[in-house]
Amino acid sequence: MTVNPIKQLSIAAAVTAMxxxxxxxxxxxxxxxxxxxxxxxxxxAGVWSMGDAATAEVWQQWTSHxxxxxxxxxxxxxxxxxxxxxxxxxxxxGVAAFEQRISNWFAAADVSMNAIWCVPIQxxxxxxxxxxxxxxxxxxxxxxIQGDTATFTDRHANVHIVDGKIRYAKIYTHEERxxxxxxxxxxxxxxxxxxxxxxxxxxxxxxxxxxxxNEMTDEDGDGIxxxxxxxxxxxxxxxxxxxxxxxxxxxxxxxAACTKTxxxxxxxxxxxxxxxxxxxxxxxxxxxxx
Length: 290
Hints:
The chain is of the alpha+beta class.
């Protein structure tokens, strides 16, 4: 099968008949082979079935390598004849061009990739023979920081994976925005906390709510932990948590003076207009420890 017909496929019919699954989700009862073919390509119906869950694992590795700026890991998953179509009729063809483009990008910017969802699907020829690879529909967020500017993009990709390597990808950008980033120093006083803990962390919009990504330090041993993070100008929602997880995070009542509540989530709220240092607060309180 050539790549051309699939580039122009209409995804909608196939997706509406499928259950969106997480990238780590196993196949359902009976496996992909037992699922009825659905969807269409041009005038031919019933050409898609659920794909191999191993395809989603390849995508997980791919996004992880992008997030850690691991060029060697990406090259290990790139097919020799990899082709990537970007917005604006821009295209990358071949592993050498891919290596040059990505290495230059990593050198110029701080890149992070947050995978959100993915669905592996299998294409079948007219005689029912399955394609020698699997397709993947994947949604993700991309952040690129250069200097004091962060660019955020909301994207999805149609990806063709053959023999465990990415052969082709078509990238669609749904939203893109750029914001100025600032250095924000945060500190929390743990002297009134009576429980046990091994580490203190801060998390929020600035690190995609990763509870283990920003560990705080107490260099002078006075019980006050500090961290400096990079956040965009405007509202900054965040929380302090313990041991790099969410089980021991701060818990606030809706309406507390230093918080903002959205749906069921009540978080600390600060305003970032320039490089700044927020006042030291007591863990799980709006003010300093007494």
